[in-house]
Amino acid sequence: MKITALLRFAWRAGRTWFGRLPAPYKLTFSITSRCNLRCASCNIWNQKIDDELSTEEIDKFFRCNPDIYWLDLTGGEVMLRPDLPDILASAARHLPHLFQLHFPCNGTLPERTGRITESVVARGIPKVVVSVSMDGPPELHDELRGKHGTWDRAVETYKRIKGISGAEVYFGMTVTHKNLSRIVETVDALSESIPKFGPRDLHLNIAHDTFYYGHPDIVALDPQAVEQQLARFSRWRGVPTNPVLLLEWLYQRRVPEYLRTGKSPIRCQALSSSLFITSRGDVYPCTSYERKLGSLRETDYELSRIWDLECSKELALEIRNGRCPGCWTPCEAYQSIIAALPRKNAWIRGDLGKGM
User: Fold this and answer.
1) Residue-wise pLDDT tens digits, 43-79
2) Residue 114 in contact with residue 153, Cβ under 8 Å?
3) Which residue, among 164, 5, 163, 172, has the nearest Cα to 92 in the 3D structure?
């Protein structure tokens, strides 16, 4: 079954090589703005929490839109939704093509996170991935997360999920000027607490100022310093040995270019193969571009009525041509990299995206 699901996913992803899809295969869906931390790189906890889609509304959305292959459920802190098990069950029940389900967490609720992960794996989704936020060695992580003891709980959460057969788990580190020079130290600290932990178990992304996650006081990163640190980290990780590590390698190679230009280094797939939905059901191209296209509540939860709008098609073309705010978040970068892979074998030469 997993092989069949993988082939279906590969076929769908491969269609992005030839243009805009008839429906998004990748969906980033924020199911809550609630958060129990006060992180330095995110201000979502400052948002007013009201009118979030109900369990029944989310169930109807999945029922009306079965062609989702790759689902990122995010927040806020997803574990704070009391109906999260029901939401995950609904996704498993109504999305027959779903290959990858990913949800991030801040690691503050180890028992609940482990229990929910175990239950969703049992539902047979081929690839269940959980990312646990990690901002640095213990003292720095707790400082940046705004609460003492979060590092210990994050480590406990990771260990619990690591012990669940059928689930994948890694630490996700958002790089800012405060932790850029401490990536190696972070891995060393984690390896002391987690058997067989290594640099391949830590995934890196860079902090962004986006409309949805608020406008934290993020100091601009120096492209040269970032390039040096990421090159050091890449050498430590070694040659990518699976598709996820390859995507990360390609993503990280383009981070300095994005920091220098402020634009996506390759053609973005927002509104061509993916989109973003807020916890209130509002539809946007991504978390960075504040161009609301519609509301699920206004279309009886049928996404096609928004995706097929002429204004959506025109905006997708503008985004592909770089006429958008520009970002390089994994939420948008990974599917964009996949769409760019066959173009002149550029990724092999290290020229991914040039001349596109």
Assistant:
1) 887 777 789 999 999 999 999 999 999 999 999 999 9
2) no
3) 5
Torsions phi, psi of 210, nearest 5? -120, 155
From the list 123, 122, 115, the residue with the least C-alpha distance to 95 is 123
Q: How far apart are CA 237 and CA 198, in angstroms?
A: 8
* CB of 119 closer than 8 Å to CB of 86: no
What pLDDT was estimated at residue 247? 94
Bridging pattern class, strands 274-277 and 282-284: antiparallel
For residues 286 and 212, give the distance between their C-alpha atoms in angstroms, rounded to a whole number.
Answer: 9
Residue recorded with tokens 């607490």: 193
Give the mean pLDDT of the chain: 93
DSSP letters, 114-171, are: HHHHHHHHTTT-SEEEEEEE--SSHHHHHHHHTSTTHHHHHHHHHHHHHTSTTEEEEE
Say if CB 71 and CB 91 are below 8 A apart: yes
Closest CA to 30 of 94, 107, 86, 87: 87
d(CA 344, CA 250) in angstroms, rounded, equals 15
Return the amino acid letter for 266. Answer: I
Peptide bond into 149 cis (omega under 30): no
Kindly state the percentage of the chain with pLDDT values over 70.
95
Distances (CA, A) of 142 to 44, 147, 193: 18, 5, 16
Distance from CA of residue 24 to its chain's centroid? 15
- How large is the angle between the packed helices 150-162 and 138-145, nearest 10 degrees? 100
38 and 46 in contact (C-beta within 8 Å)? no
**Which residues fall within 8 angstroms of residue 177, CB to CB, at 6 or more apart?**
218, 219, 220, 221
Sequence letter at residue 258: Y
The CA-CA-CA angle for residues 136, 140, 144, to 5°, reads 95
Structure tokens at 63: 């029922």
Cα–Cα distance for residue pair 121/113, rounded to 1 Å: 12
Is pLDDT larger for residue 36 or for residue 219?
36
Does residue 166 come out as left (phi exceeding 0), alpha (psi in the -120 to 50 range) or beta? left
pLDDT at 351: 44
| pLDDT value, residue 356 | 33
**Two tokens at 309?**
């709008």
